[in-house]
Amino acid sequence: MVYNEESGITNFAKFAEFPWMVAIIQLSSFKYIPDLTIVASGTLIHPKFVLTTAHTLKSSRRYLARFGEWNLNSSAEIYPRQDIHIERHIIHPSYRDEFIPEYDVALAMLRENIIYTEHIRPLCLPSAEDLFEGQRCIETGWGYETTSDTQATIMKRLKLEIISHERCQEFFDTLDDNFELSRSVMCVEGSKSENTCMKDAGAPLACQRQDGSYVLAGMTSWMLGCHRLDAPSGHVNVTKVVGWINDTIEAYVMAVIAYRSITAQLVNQVMCQTVDRMA
User: Fold this and answer.
1) Are 254 and 210 in contact (CB under 8 A)?
2) pLDDT score recorded for residue 109
3) Which of 97-123 are b and which e, b meaning 16 or more Cβ less than 10 Å from the residue's Cβ?
4) Which domains does the chain have, with CATH numbers?
């Protein structure tokens, strides 16, 4: 996330203010080298799943999801964080790894269920009919700051305005008349002093509803450059992929139920056979 020092902005998030935030950490390829590198952010949406961007997860790498993180340089926080390995990731079938990615979304499946606590809780998904155009919503993360070219160590928050698809298309028309912006992309704008930057990929954009609750409207996918504060940045439009998200999670839940049912039947058969032999 970009912050201009001259503006005096110090938008640090409070500890546990955004309990759905997840740090996606790339583990070393070497078993005995404890290399922990934060490559992206994610959003907790289910005890077994984290939503993040497809382009940040490579099949040849090992990843860890860290929950309850706030200060990257400290482990002595009020409540302990939880680290769970990512067992595998499921990429949206329409994902295209282009200069401007399309359907840049993936579900990271955890090796075990996360335990909800005071500072670790999921963020609600929107419905496919929700509209967020014109709203100023909150994005959080540990992205780079252009003033120092270093990654933020304490989670930051900033407000971004969701602009219309047509307005965003007009901007790209000035760069390339033949470029057509995918409907899976949501464009946002910051102010003259703040915007998204490197390592912000997967960062959730949470919009507040009238009842005060928050919902996941988008997540950072790309930007044209940290220093281009006048240019919109691209987010995954979650309303365009929420059907796939729900269907994928439901399929997993049904598979687990079926597996447990079959396992219970097999155990029952073994017990019956044992009783018969004893008789």
Assistant:
1) no
2) 96
3) eeebbbbbbbbbbbeeebeeeebbebb
4) 21-110 (2.40.10.10), 135-239 (2.40.10.10)
Average pLDDT of the chain to the nearest whole number: 83
- Give the CA-trace dihedral at 226, 156, 114, 184, to 10 degrees: -40
Instruction: Decide if pLDDT at 33 tops 60.
Output: no
| C-alpha distances out from residue 260 to 48, 195, 253, 256, 266, Å | 17, 47, 11, 6, 10
State what percent of residues in the chain have pLDDT above 90: 51
Please give the structure tokens belonging to residue 267: 């155990």
Q: What is the pLDDT of residues 106-123, one digit of tens each?
A: 999 999 999 999 999 999
User: What b/e string do you get for 176-202 counting C-beta neighbours within 10 Å, with b at 16 or more?
Assistant: eeeeebbebbbbbbbeeebbbbbbbbb
For 91-107, the three-class secondary structure string (H helix, E strand, C coil) is ECCCCECCCCCECCCEE
Among the listed residues 9, 69, 62, the one whose alpha carbon sits nearest the alpha carbon of residue 44: 69
